[in-house]
Amino acid sequence: MFVSLFTNATVRTVNNAGGAQFGDLISAITAATSGDTIYVCGSASTYSGATTNKTNLVFIGAGYNPQKQNPLKSTITNAWILGNGNAVIGFDLVGSIGFSNPSISNLKISRCKVSSFNSTNNTFTNCMFDNCIWTSLTLSSPFTSQTFNGLVFSNCLIYMTSSYGQNIFNGNTLSGSGVTIDHCAFIKDGAAINFFGGTPNATGFVFTNNIFINVTPATAGTSYQYTSNYSSATLSPTYGIGNITGTTWPFVTPQASVTGTFQYAWDFHLAAASPLIGAGTFGSEIGLYGGNVPFNGSGEAPIPQIDILMLNGTQFTPGGSMGIQFQSTIGN
Q: Which of 159, 116, 122, 160 is nearest to 138 (CA)?
């Protein structure tokens, strides 16, 4: 159950189990105009993705791991093709993500679990991924032949199983500038991989407050900025300041448990007395839970929500009183 904070645009609701304005995402998008908000209710069944060239739409789901009385999540399968200026918050994206044209701008994907992502020959301008979990990436570099004019990854968890053997950014074909990666955790199960492939042509990559486990972030010859990162692979001092190299597993959940298919039960808070606490920029902690918007493991949108709703009794007299108990959260 959601409470809208938006008053200057139409709010459209979607529930494939009934009780909403629309039963599927495609119908809601068809009816929407720029500036509208589309709430997609949590459901026991998945929603099909859709293709849209419409701009400035806000999609809000129930989260990928909601912590509430009825923990139904908003799951999107099949391809979801997005236009410029869209915001996508609180979904389990088990299908692929694509873009309606090769130049995508002002896109924000927040608090989503991303299972399949592969972008080729696109230009990203002022786009952002924050508080997302990336798992089960396709067996090719998620970002290939890209041009960047502003891209931010913030407080994201990128977990790769032992079967993933590619790079994250295919460096030889990157161009442009302005990529910021801050307070993320890159964790590879099994043999190590490189963050970049080849020799990157793009400039302006800035890495701050990240954790790299079995992922080598630096590439020989790059001049990218690395500040206050923790890496299991050596970072040359010429790449920046405040970086820490070590083989100590930094998280609460033991390293032996973090293997195979991703589990929500894994705890990526820093272990007690970790030297990474307070070692980040401006005294923040390195990793997912530092910075202005710490990692949220539920994917629930930062809006007021009702978590528990109970009726006291099963029969009520017309005109009489009804006892209701509920618990709500403001959201963060």
A: 116
Give CA–CA dist 201/175, Å, rounded: 5
pTM score over 0.90:
no
CA torsion angle 1 27 22 84 (round to 10)? 20
Residue spans of beta strands (DSSP E) within 242-317:
244-245, 305-312
Maximum alpha-carbon separation in the chain:
77
- Give yes or no for a contact between 144 and 170, defined as CB atoms under 8 angstroms apart: yes
- Report the amino acid identity of residue 54: K
Q: Which of 96, 86, 98, 109 is nearest to 29 (CA)?
A: 86
Pairing mode of beta strands 230-231, 211-213: parallel
Q: Which residue has the tokens 């407050």?
A: 209
Contact 77, 105 (CB under 8 A): no
21: which 2 tokens? 């304005």
> For residues 220 and 77, what is the distance between their CA atoms, to the nearest angstrom?
39
What tokens does 204 get? 């302006």
- In this structure, what token pair is assigned to residue 64? 């990928």
User: Distance between CA 310 and CA 290 in Å, rounded?
Assistant: 36
Task: Compute the distance between CA of residue 332 and CA of residue 317 in angstroms, rounded to an integer.
Answer: 39
Rounded to the nearest angstrom, the gap between the alpha carbon of residue 160 and the centroid of all alpha carbons in its chain is 15
- Which two tokens mark 255? 């390293």
Secondary structure letter of residue 114 according to DSSP: E
Handedness of CA 15, 11, 65, 85 (dihedral sign): positive
pLDDT tens digit string along 193-225?
888 776 666 677 889 999 999 988 876 556 688
* Torsion angle, alpha carbons of 155, 161, 162, 163, to 10: -120
Residue keyed to tokens 């696109």:
122
Nearest to 11 by CA among 79, 60, 55, 69: 60
CA-CA distance, 258 to 162, in Å (whole number)? 11
Per-residue pLDDT tens for 71-116?
899 999 877 778 889 999 999 998 777 776 778 889 999 999 988 7
| CA–CA distance, 157 with 187 (Å, rounded to integer) | 8
